Amino acid sequence: MNLFPELKKRYSGDNLNAREAQRLAEFIAFGPVVFQTARILLKWGILDIIRDSDNGMTIDEVAKHTNISIYAAKCLMEAALCIGILFIDPETDRFKISKTGWFLINDPAVRVNIDFNHDVNYEGWFHLEESLKEGKPAGLKHFGDWPTVYEGLSSLPEQVQKSWFGFDHFYSDSSFPEALEIVFKKNKTRSLYDVGGNTGKWALQCVAYDNDVEVTILDLPQQIKLMETNTSGKEGANRIKGYGINLLEASAKFPKNETAPDAIWMSQFLDCFSMEEIVSILSIAKEAMGDNTRIYIMETLWDRQRFEPAAFCLTMTSLYFTAIANGNSKMYNTEDLAECIKKAGLEIEKIYDGLGQGHSIIKVKLINQ
Ligand SMILES: C[S@@+](CC[C@H](N)C(=O)[O-])C[C@H]1O[C@@H](n2cnc3c(N)ncnc32)[C@H](O)[C@@H]1O
Predict the structure, then answer these.
(1) 272: Cβ below 6 Å to ligand 1?
(2) Beta strands in 45-184 (DSSP E)
(3) What fold is seen in the domain 172-303+327-366?
(4) Domains 5-106 and 172-303+327-366 share a fold
(5) pLDDT per position in the chain (369 positions), as tens?
(6) Which of 50, 121, 114, 119 has its CA nearest to residue 80?
(7) Ligand 1 centre from 22 Cα, in Å?
């Protein structure tokens, strides 16, 4: 595998000594309670008050300030010590926030991931084994009886929707400014199909970027309704059209206008499908392309991450796709997507890396154009 340098360094070889390896194995064994302890420390504001204290805090002080029992404070804070969220100042014997605690409080990506994992994934991952064996999202059952999470998105409980969209938007939103430059400045785009356009966030940015841009959002019919409510009355919304479609249906076709679109945009979309389905969707897209049309695939490809924690998040997120989303898709690497693009009879023209939180854009054209 052609990994980016930091990943290659980290993932080539077995780099821990025996004691570190044993500790990591126990960290894994207690993974669920490590997660819940950290989440509760954040939710109850315990990490905040310790950070804001002048000189750290004792267990009794935390119990008093947060109105919890000394027993609860002791359990949480002793566990936090061993997890590495807190440390004891050797001079004062008081608990202080570690660097890891600081990231838990301040890193927006960590907060989004905690909410996503607690509200959307936590219970579903109990069914990961079944999902892997059957290629079906067995962990989705407790939310509803849909074949994939996408049919259920608009009817998920409010808090679950909030965390799902928070996760989805956090990653794509931060890449949109650079993506706009690539799609509209480096390439002359006037008409764009936004495939899997979701709530219309990208489409709104496209029409605001340039007064001549027209966007058609292709998404599941129930999602199009949500998008229309979300975009209604906003600047340029009259240049956004919705097109309800299930791209997994055999008869699915992109809308056919007099001229082919300049751009077909797929952001965080192809990761919702198996490789076989991706080939089929790209083949459908190909039918709608003209010589000058380019497909822009924006994905967080885990092998192209500059920083290892990002690759970690992405390979873990793959298992959300397994247990909750659809049972057959993942966060892909470059090789996988390149294979699908080739099988669909298309060609990679260029790959732009390092957008926002670690997105790449694969620009795709018809062969020999
Ligand atoms: C992960 S979201 C991506 C949203 C957005 N493009 C972004 O970058 O934030 C995937 C989108 O694909 C849509 N989708 C999933 N399965 C689909 C299907 N079979 N046909 C059409 N759209 C689908 C979902 O409704 C959802 O809006």
Answers:
(1) yes
(2) 86-88, 95-97
(3) Rossmann fold (3.40.50)
(4) no
(5) 889 999 999 999 999 999 999 999 999 999 999 999 999 999 999 999 999 999 999 999 999 999 999 999 999 999 999 999 999 999 999 999 999 999 999 999 999 999 999 999 999 999 999 999 999 999 999 999 999 999 999 899 999 999 999 999 898 888 999 999 999 988 889 999 999 999 999 999 999 999 999 999 999 998 999 999 999 999 999 999 999 999 999 899 999 888 999 999 999 999 999 999 999 999 999 999 999 999 999 999 999 999 999 999 999 999 999 999 999 999 999 999 999 999 999 999 999 999 998 999 999 999 987
(6) 50
(7) 41
Predicted TM-score (pTM) of this structure: 0.92
Dihedral, CA atoms, 345, 178, 312, 364, nearest 10 degrees? Answer: 0
CA pair distance 77, 85, nearest whole angstrom: 9
Interface ipTM above 0.90: yes
Query: Ligand 1 pocket, 150 CB below 6 A?
Result: yes
Q: Is residue 199 lining ligand 1, measured as CB closer than 6 Å?
A: no
Q: Which atom of ligand 1 is nearest to the CA of 169?
A: 9
Sequence-ordered list of residues with C-beta below 8 angstroms from that of 137, at least 6 positions apart, any chain: 124, 131, 148, 149, 322, 323, 324, 325, 326, 327
> 213 is written with which tokens?
């841009």
* Structural domain boundaries in the chain: 5-106, 172-303+327-366
Closest residue by Cα to atom 13, ligand 1, is 196
Q: Which two tokens stand for residue 233?
A: 């009355």
- Evaluate whether 69 touches 53 at the Cβ level (below 8 Å): no
What's the CATH code, domain 5-106?
1.10.10.10
In eight-state DSSP terms, residue 186 is S
Nearest protein Cα to ligand 1, atom 22? 219
CA distances from 323 to 35, 134, 149, 318 (A): 18, 10, 10, 9
- Distance separating alpha carbons of residues 243 and 193, to the nearest angstrom: 10
Q: Strand pairing partners for 171?
A: none
